[in-house]
Structure to design on (324 residues):
């Protein structure tokens, strides 16, 4: 099957310049602020977005060098299938985060609760809508006894280029 | 900035062969079943996934022909910025759904609660983890008085190739 090609719509700016020490999920990045710079040709698409308090960001993990099918996640010491983890070293280097949208000024979005590296290319923004984006009575497999660690675990260099 | 290239990791099969009549979100596709066929070279990455009851699917909206910065969403009669909607005719044709994972048999995933067209190329699977993927006290802008319509609104051809 043929390759699929996307163009970045903007760049995410954050205080995290290197993988080491970056939160691994928003619960560790809570209150951390950053900005998104949307490229001028896409700004018209931001209309009506400011009414939403939270947005999905879909982005390109451009500093990840590896592709592994089994990984040792930050929170665990066993090898897990990569699709059962949020590890960045997946076959397609696609990242997904929900962030708080504080303010939009022209092509600049002020955002909060970041777990994203600085200078990350953004592929899409979608509004977060609890009525369609939340599920109840979930099972979370191997993460069951680990989710508490999201808050205090920081990334290291294991998945990234030197 | 240069193009970003991904390879499909599998194909989503669903009962929805055409855009017309396809649910626009899972609340309309509730209980609808489908399957995912993961390509053999990625099957090892499915290890440990079966412990999760819900998964994010990130996929390529390969039947969408348009790219619009303002769109008239199915639930509304006003033009809205595309990033404030879940319309498929976005600059990058990336889809995002949360589905229920019923069962995994080798490279076949049985899934439920589908709002996805048949034969859609899959780019990534991530486990859905309520502790990191839900937000409370959300504002949902123009959708505020429309979310009830997700359940009963079906797609038409407006965003797709003939």
């Amino acid at each position: 099957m043929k390759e699929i090609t996307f163009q970045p719509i903007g760049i995410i700016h954050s205080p995290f310049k290197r993988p080491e020490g970056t939160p691994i999920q928003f619960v560790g990045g809570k209150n951390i602020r950053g900005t998104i710079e949307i490229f001028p040709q896409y700004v018209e698409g931001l209309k009506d977005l400011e009414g939403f308090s939270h947005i999905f960001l879909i982005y390109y993990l451009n500093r990840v060098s590896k592709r592994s099918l089994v990984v040792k996640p930050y929170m665990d010491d066993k090898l897990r299938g990569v699709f059962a983890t949020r590890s960045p070293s997946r076959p397609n280097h696609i990242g997904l985060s929900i962030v708080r949208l504080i303010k939009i000024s022209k092509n600049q979005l002020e955002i909060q609760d970041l777990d994203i590296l600085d200078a990350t290319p953004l592929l899409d923004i979608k509004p977060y809508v609890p009525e369609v984006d939340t599920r109840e009575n979930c099972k979370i497999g191997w993460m069951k006894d680990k989710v508490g660690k999201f808050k205090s675990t920081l990334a290291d260099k294991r998945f990234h280029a030197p």
